């Protein structure tokens, strides 16, 4: 019987789903992603996670819960480090335990670690371990599946660099083609930017005003790294580095008309990275700029009011065309 492997639609999903989907499908497993976030999923996440977890961690608990009776196992790998010399965020390291011991009635959770800081071959080892856990034991087939997955990952990243959001690439929905009236940088973690329930359709609302949105995932990592060299100390949190490098690039670039920062209440990384960006923007950035903070209680009305204020700021800066 084909094994059904569940993938929660949260956290690493918007970075690595095409990779893991190709790998498991090529091996012969059936891949079952959880549905898009809903109020019920969020409520279950809030119910089953600890109070001081950040919003994305709570959402992931809800997604794991939604898969509990649909799959034979759930993949929640322990992503300790995915870039040489860097860590992602401590919450990613503890995620498998948080979910396993908080959400009831789950099938086995596959929590294989990926730690590139400790071992450069960690990813390969992890893929073999996952395959063996799922009872696929043919080394040639595993190796072929890894190659297919890496190719899918490269194709996914290339499409995102062209300006398509990861969720639209995953779903195979074509990106926008017509010319925008303004371009802004939208800074935030992928699981905030691309989960339209969590962010109350932020990207859609911006695009409806003919605003082109550039997110950190669409910016060349070399450019991000270059801009992080300006920092007085090396940033060793990958997620914080991506935010800071992208924001500094946008602030330096005359092709952008403004910048929005989307942060989650309770995010430890944002309390450092977001604070740094905010200070730099207040000191040096002369274009429209705003921080939007969300948690599980954020309502559409307050959020839209803030957004309207940002549109007003943009309009004041666009003399010949209005959004
Ligand atoms: S980076 Fe922030 S939002 Fe993301 S998992 Fe860590 S604490 Fe949560």
CATH class of the largest domain: Alpha Beta
Largest sheet: 4 strands, parallel
Helix share of residues?
A: 40-55%
Low-confidence stretches: none
Instruction: Compute the separation of the termini in Å.
Output: 55 Å
How many separate helices? 13
Shape: globular
Helix-strand makeup class: alpha/beta
In CATH, the architecture of the largest domain is 3-Layer(aba) Sandwich
Cofactors, ions and other ligands in the entry: iron/sulfur cluster
The CATH topology of the largest domain is what?
A: Rossmann fold
β-strand amount: 5-15%
Number of domains: 2
* Helix/strand order, N-terminal first: EHEHHEEHEEHHHEHHEHHEHEH
- Radius of gyration computed on alpha carbons: 20 Å
Average the pLDDT over all residues and give the rounded result. 93
Strand order of the largest sheet: 2-1-3-5
Number of strands: 10
Structure described in brief:
This protein is of the alpha/beta class.
Folded structure, characterized:
The protein is an alpha/beta fold and 323 residues long. The protein has two domains: 4-161, Rossmann fold, CATH 3.40.50; 176-317, Rossmann fold (3-Layer(aba) Sandwich). The protein is 49% helix and 13% strand. It is built from 13 helices and ten strands. The strands form three sheets. A four-stranded parallel β-sheet has the order 2-1-3-5, covered by helices on one side. A four-stranded parallel β-sheet has the order 8-7-9-10, sandwiched between helices. Strand 9 (258-264), helix 12 and strand 10 (289-294) form a beta-alpha-beta unit. Helix 2 (39-48) crosses helix 3 and helix 5 (122-133) packs across helix 6 (139-161). The structure holds iron/sulfur cluster. Residues 54, 56-57, 89, 91, 189, 239, 264, 267-270 line the site of iron/sulfur cluster (SF4).
């Amino acid at each position: 019987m084909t094994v059904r492997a569940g993938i929660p639609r949260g956290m690493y999903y918007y970075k690595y789903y095409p990779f893991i989907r190709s790998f498991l499908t090529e091996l012969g497993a059936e891949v079952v992603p959880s549905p898009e976030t809903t109020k019920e999923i969020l409520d279950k996440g809030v119910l089953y996670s600890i109070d001081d977890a950040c919003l994305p961690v709570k959402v992931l608990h809800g997604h794991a819960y939604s898969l509990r009776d649909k799959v034979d196992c759930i993949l929640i790998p322990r992503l300790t480090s995915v870039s040489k010399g860097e860590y992602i965020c401590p919450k990613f390291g503890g995620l498998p335990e948080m979910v396993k011991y908080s959400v009831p009635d789950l099938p086995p959770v596959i929590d294989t670690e990926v730690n590139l800081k400790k071992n450069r071959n960690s990813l390969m080892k992890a893929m073999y371990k996952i395959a063996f856990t799922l009872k696929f034991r043919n080394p040639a087939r595993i190796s072929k599946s890894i190659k297919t997955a890496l190719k899918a990952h490269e194709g996914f990243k290339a499409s995102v660099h062209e300006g398509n959001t990861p969720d639209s690439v995953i779903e195979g929905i074509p990106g926008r083609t017509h010319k925008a009236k303004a371009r802004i940088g939208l800074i935030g973690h992928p699981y905030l930017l691309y989960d339209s329930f969590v962010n109350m359709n932020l990207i859609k609302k911006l695009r409806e005003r003919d605003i082109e949105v550039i997110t950190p995932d669409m910016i060349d990592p070399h450019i991000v790294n270059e801009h992080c060299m300006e920092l007085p100390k090396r940033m060793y949190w990958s997620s914080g580095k991506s935010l800071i490098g992208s924001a500094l690039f946008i602030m330096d670039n005359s092709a952008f008309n403004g910048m929005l920062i989307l942060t989650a209440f309770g995010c430890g990384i944002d309390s450092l990275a977001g604070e740094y960006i905010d200070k730099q923007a207040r000191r040096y950035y002369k274009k429209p700029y705003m921080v939007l903070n969300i948690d599980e209680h954020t309502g559409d009305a307050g959020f839209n009011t803030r957004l309207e204020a940002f549109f007003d700021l943009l309009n004041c800066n666009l003399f010949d065309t209005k959004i």
